[in-house]
Amino acid sequence: MITFGPVPSRRLGRSLGVNNIPKKVCSYDCVYCQIGKTKLLSVERREFFKIDEILKEVSDKSRNSEYDYITFVPDGEPTLDINLGQEIKALKDLGKIAVITNASLLWVEGVREALHHADWVSVKLDAARKGTWKKIDRPHFSLSFEKVLEGILEFSKQFEGTLVTETMIISEFNDSEKDLVEIAKLLEKINPKTAYISVPTRPPAYSVKPASDETLDLAYVMISSRGIDVEILSKPEVGSFEIGDDPKKGILSITAVHPMRESDLKKALEDKGYDFSIVEELLQEKKLEVLEYGGVRFYRKR
Ligand code: SF4
Predict the structure, then answer these.
(1) What is the CA(249)–ligand 1 centre distance, in A?
(2) Measuring from atom 4 of ligand 1, which residue has the nearest CA?
(3) Residues 222, 75: one domain?
(4) Which of 4, 13, 30, 168 has the fewest CB atoms found within 10 Å of its own CB?
(5) How far is CA 96 from the centre of its chain?
């Protein structure tokens, strides 16, 4: 399934998700990625689904759903989809469009052009120093840090919608004072509407630890003192997940992108009158896996 949810989003309210990149194809292999290690590290922009297929699925799903945004937030990097601009333009009649991108391809004019049609864009900014970027985001070998930063700055000057940034802070990766100062300086140049600072709230791809609360507070002070609105996202989202009328498909489509807490999964099933045996079946069929993080059980599509 290309669409999922709607799901609760800490930044967007109710988000109707569009998974326009299947099977974890990404230009990064971030140490904290919640959907696992990157299976295909790539910077090649191409077609993953036919445009009509995406439009039909989103249009069908939108009819029975209440949402604030249609959000391109795939199982990989959304700007690798060569048709992204056309899809955004075509879907605008159905609601506001958000895109959550790792920003690694913003130096490509076609990517900036595609994103200009969106209403809300979130760009990743985990590092302002090359060594830190390589360590935390584990980029494709062909990417140049300088070009990635140029692309972000260029886009920030041109984009007329709402531009926000997201910075994940990981202990011993990008939480040194030097890293935080450089990130704050760069954010001042980008001047996003809001700079979101976050820590992993779902199981990360590699064995890493979130930054401490003290570090998050320090980052908050450093960035906000430069006149940027900052929000810290260190708690999970609150709200119900919509699994639709085919619960197995619904669970798999959400957990491909958002590993779900057991409590959220139980609630989503109860809302539709189903019990937890559906999850047991998916586990037996080896379509779902269980992960533990912070003392909580999560379910993720295998
Ligand atoms: S967090 Fe985003 S950019 Fe990083 S590896 Fe996962 S999907 Fe790719």
Answers:
(1) 23
(2) 30
(3) yes
(4) 13
(5) 17
For 211-263, the pLDDT digits (tens) are 999 999 999 999 999 999 999 998 887 888 888 888 899 999 999 888 999 99
Asked if residues 126 and 174 have their Cβ atoms less than 8 Å apart, the reply is yes
Are 284 and 199 in the same domain? no
Domain count, the chain: 2
pLDDT score recorded for residue 97: 98
| Separation of alpha carbons 291 and 289, rounded Å | 7
Regarding beta strands 3-9 and 13-18, do their DSSP bridges make them parallel or antiparallel, or are they unpaired?
A: antiparallel
Contact status, residue 284 vs residue 251, Cβ threshold 8 Å: no
Kindly state the average pLDDT of the residues 203-213: 94
What is the helix, strand, coil percentage profile of the chain, to 5? 35, 20, 40
**CA gap 261, 244 in Å, rounded:** 18
Residue of 19, 25, 28 best suited for mutating to test ligand 1, as the one with most atoms within 8 Å of CB: 28
242 close to 268: Cβ distance less than 8 angstroms: yes
Q: Is the pLDDT of residue 183 over 90?
A: yes
Tokens of 23: 């099977």
Chain mean pLDDT for the chain: 94
Give the DSSP letter of residue 210: B
Parent domain of 98: 3-233
Amino acid at 140: H
- Residues in contact with ligand 1 by the CB-under-6-Å rule are 26, 28-30, 33, 35, 38, 76-77, 102
- What pLDDT is attached to residue 130? 98
